[in-house]
Structures are given as C-alpha cells and as structure tokens.
From TrEMBL:
Pfam families: BPD_transp_1 (PF00528)
NCBIfam families: ectoine_ehuD, HEQRo_perm_3TM
Protein name: Ectoine/hydroxyectoine ABC transporter permease subunit EhuD
Family: Belongs to the binding-protein-dependent transport system permease family.
Residue ranges annotated for the ABC transmembrane type-1 domain, each copy included: 15-207
An annotated Gene Ontology molecular function: transmembrane transporter activity
GO terms classed as biological process: amino acid transport
Length: 216
C-alpha cells in the first residue's frame, strides 16, 4: 500500500468545503447549546412545578437518548408534522439541542457553586430577583464553568461526523463521497483524521490555559 499524494491534492477542494460546513455546524450548534442550556438550568430552579418538571423530563429524555436517533427524528419524522428543514439546519439544531442538556448541568453546578453569602448580600441590598441573577449570580457562575463548556465544544466537534447520516457533507462526509467516487480510501480518511487532531488539540491546550488563568 502506498500513500498517493496526488489523491490528497484532488481531495483538498472537497475537504475545505467539509471543513467550512463542520465549523459552521460547530459554531451555531455551540451557540444553541450554551443559550438553551442556560434556559434549562434556570427553568429547573423555578419554584413552579409546572415549569420545573416538564423541563426536567425533556432534558433527561434528550440526554439519555443517542444523538444519531435524535438527528433521524428531526430530519425524517418532523416533516411528517409539517416541519421541514435543510440537512445542515437539522444538524445544527440536533447538536445544539442534544448538548444543551449537558451544558444545563454545567450551569447548574456553577450556580450551586456560588457562595451562599452572595445570595444573602443581594437580599440585604434589596436587589430585585432579575438583577440578582444578572449582576451577581450568573457572572460568577459562568466564569467558573467556562472550561467545562469548552470541553463540550470539543465533544461536539468529534460528534459532527454523525451529521453525514442525514446528508450533511462535513469533513467525513466529503471523505466518504470522494472515496466512493475514486475508490481511494487511505488518503481522504487520513487527511480528515489529521484535521480533527489539528483542530481539537490546540483547542484543548487553549482550554487548559484558560482554566489556569481563571483559577488564579
């Protein structure tokens, strides 16, 4: 077996298209996961059972079912109910929704980690409940959980190949399509594997540096 560098050159245009799609899905999915996760975390702390219980059921269901099953459901079942989205939009929503249930737990841990004295000080100052959350609690809680949130971004990157199952041509999807057309498998899959490493490893180092900085 020999490594054909000319095949790598032929694959690069498709590869870069796949990288762009992967990064789009990752960025948009992360925004959904972070925003929706915070909503879940706050809703689970609600004093109203009518709010807290349904959110708990939804998050537990999503967290304990496979991402691939959720993607199939969104892409193939939702159109039966009149909701039709493109493959990329479905993938972004699927990634964001799935990981929002994990980021919700991260936010919950961060909120629980805020010292009780901070709540008491806000009460002593007669701060409104909304102001207490936005000015006192959430800034401290989010600062504590930034590294953990970053780890989930890396996990989303590694799960992005699942989007190919619904027709999204991200990096692995482009590699599989190129392989089926040219019958060359070693080169495209090697390039994709190296690309994941090149993207994920520096991100891991950055997160470690950020964690050390925030811990000071």
């Amino acid at each position: 077996m020999t490594f054909d560098w000319s095949a790598v050159g032929d694959f690069l245009p498709a590869f870069f298209r796949g990288v762009l799609v992967t990064l789009q899905a990752l960025a948009l999915g992360s925004l959904i996961a972070f925003a929706l996760g915070l909503v879940w975390a706050l809703a689970q702390r609600s004093a109203r059972k009518a709010v807290r219980w349904p959110v708990t059921v939804i998050t537990e269901f999503v967290r304990n079912t496979p991402l691939l099953v959720q993607l199939f459901f969104l892409y193939y079942v939702m159109p039966e109910w009149g909701v039709t989205l493109s493959a990329l939009a479905t993938g972004v929503i699927g990634l964001g929704l799935h990981y929002s249930t994990y980021t919700a737990e991260v936010y919950r841990a961060g909120i629980d980690g805020v010292p009780a004295g901070q709540w008491e000080a806000a009460t002593a100052l007669s701060l409104p409940r909304g102001r207490t959350w936005t000015a006192v609690i959430l800034p401290q809680a989010i600062r504590r959980v930034v590294p953990a949130l970053g780890n989930y971004v890396i996990s989303m990157l590694k799960d992005s190949p699942m989007l190919f199952a619904i027709g999204v041509l991200e990096m692995l999807g482009e590699a599989r399509q190129f392989s089926s057309q040219t019958f060359q498998t070693v080169e495209p899959y090697t390039v994709v594997g190296v690309a994941f490493l090149v993207i994920a490893y520096p991100a891991s180092l950055l997160l470690r540096a950020l964690e050390r900085r925030l811990a000071r």
